Amino acid sequence: MSKIIIKTVNLTKFYGKSRGILDVSFEVEEGEIFGFIGPNGAGKTTTIRTLLGFLIPTKGRAEIFGLDSVKDSHIIKRQIGYVPSEVNYYDDMKTEDLLLYSSKFYLKDLRNRIKELCEIFEVPLGKKIRELSFGNKKKLAVIQAILHQPRLLILDEPTAGLDPIMQNRFFEILKEENKKGVTIFFSSHVLNEVQKMCNRVAIIKEGEILKIEEIEKLRSNNFKRVKIDFRQKVEFEFNLPGMNNVRKEDSSIEFLYMGDLEILIKKLSQVKVQNLVIEEPSLEEIFLHYYGKEVTK
After folding, report:
1. Which domain does 156 fall in, by range?
2. Does one domain contain both 136 and 273?
3. What is the distance between the alpha carbons of residues 72 and 211, in angstroms, rounded to a whole number?
4. How far apart (Å, rounded) are the C-alpha atoms in residues 114 and 100?
């Protein structure tokens, strides 16, 4: 039986009268790569900061490794790595000094690992932080997070500022860490990242969890993407229960379908069809369906 590494129960955070998150409940199992997706302002960062004990919950509770995220925060932080969405450091520190300073918190000699990771991520050891680009500062945060080989990685928009080549390198390292048994909580609004990396995903909207599902089930069990090209201009009403996100043109129609395929096929037998495509939708299409509108990226 898998261990539960993260558990939240009705986790709620208000800023005065303003909603942060409301009754957020989920569990992350040991060894899992768990996706947490939603656009900016959905409550992802508030959830993470409350989970880490940086914010005190208004209601509910959070546990990491079975420990209370508020009372046992100092114990928890020794065993986790965290990449925040925004990175800020002391500008006059050198890269190597920052990483050596970080390593002292874990009472380990990590000089060889610092050198190895800086070579992998192409981060210069001798430069002052104020001389680094935004991308290199983000890479530094990633190195700092995985330096001590934590049991749990919590990543808040970790690829912002990384170029595509470095993003791929980062994903490879995450997969290697995961193979070693590291549990990963991956928060992002970049849906193809989540789709590539994660086993399960929670969708959050306006501070509330809409759905928690395995990636494959989310993609394959609920919806099909259907595109129909007709032999002539469509002058009839093509409408079935379960059709969503419908896009029509003169002689074609495309939609997400959550209904009985047999009913769809019977309907198609009544019209002249030139081409028919039925396939699995992308996670992004499903995500937009749950939000009911375009997501700002």
Report:
1. 4-214
2. no
3. 29
4. 8
